[in-house]
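Q: Two folds, back to back.
A: First:
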Amino acid sequence: MVRLQRNDNEAISRANQQMHGIRITVMLAPLSALRNGYYCPSGRDPTVRIDIPPPSQHSEQFSSAALPPASTASYDRTSVSVIKQDCLLAALNMKERGLRPVVLIVASVCDDLDDPTNQRRPTYPIAEFGGIYTPDITIFRDSEDSGYVFRQVPFTVDFVAVAAYRYVT
């Protein structure tokens, strides 16, 4: 591990490059698993394979005009919690309590940041007050704190990608 001293920009740069390299390496294994359609969970017999199911539904672009009517259900109170936890683990905890969370992805209003050179994506640009809803994404890696190990038991969660609104007056 690189030991950092105050104002040691070179050491900080090396540490950042090292961390970037680790994240790239961690990213390659899931890409391979997705191509293969399965993965071998960490700490298990490598002949044990867990299938990665194809998405059950496609992503759906929405805008304020396409939203369904608001619920007429009445609630006594709204509870908001801020916790220091990986968002996917927080979503899993909510699912285990019988809730159906949706994980927010703060996206770019203009660019598909996953592949900014791909001009064939029909979902971009996102409408000014719109977003992209993607249900039932399979999560098969654990958090950064665990070293991104492959999960023994995968789970699914929904995502919504919306751009942060700029120029608020």
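A: Second:
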Amino acid sequence: MRQLKKELKKAFEAPQPQRKEEFLRQHGNGGGSLTGFLMVQLSYIGKGTWGMMALIFIISMLAGRCMYFQDASQALGILGAIMPFWAGLFMSEGLKSKRNGMAELELSCRHSILQVTMARFIILGIVELAALLAVGAGIGNAWRAGFVRGTVYILVPWMATSFLSLCLIKRSGRENEAWYCLGAAVLVSITLMSCGNIWKEMYSPVFFGCWLLLFALLLAGNGYKIKWFRQHMEDYLWNLN
């Protein structure tokens, strides 16, 4: 019986794998590199999102150009009122997994839901930061206010919207998440537009210290919310309400 087992094992022994190393080099990573992972997430960002971002960027640049021809404070106020919608789009697109009911599927994938979401935020953040810096540089040149001052003026409403969105989405259902982000953008935009009568004073050098203080507070607030968001991401997304 023992001899029979040996003969059977020998007869049905699997052959040695051929070209194993070549196969593993071609398919072993499965897109596991950081660059491949980011490129995959880049492809999942909708064309509509890129189109809206391009449209907002063009409108922002046109508003910046208006500073050459009319009251700079009015053009800057309008530009500041546009920024919240940029931030709202950023937040809504970055969190679309929960809104589309894909959170559970992504939790079972090779990369965690936290990595997937943060990858989208990184991609969108790099694009929006580059665009915001370009707009800020344009404001500084057109208004002769300097790059730092122009950038702070447009980043404050952007960060105010992102902070408010992070506060609201904690309590939102997946079907209402995009509306919460849009609501935050509208609220910040209306608040800024309602100050139209005092734009000239708001954007004067006298009050720039207040803008810097608000910038620092919003930066700290967003940092705190992002830290909380990272710590509670998976538990939060599992609770799909």
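Q: And?
A: The chain is about 75% helix and 0% strand.
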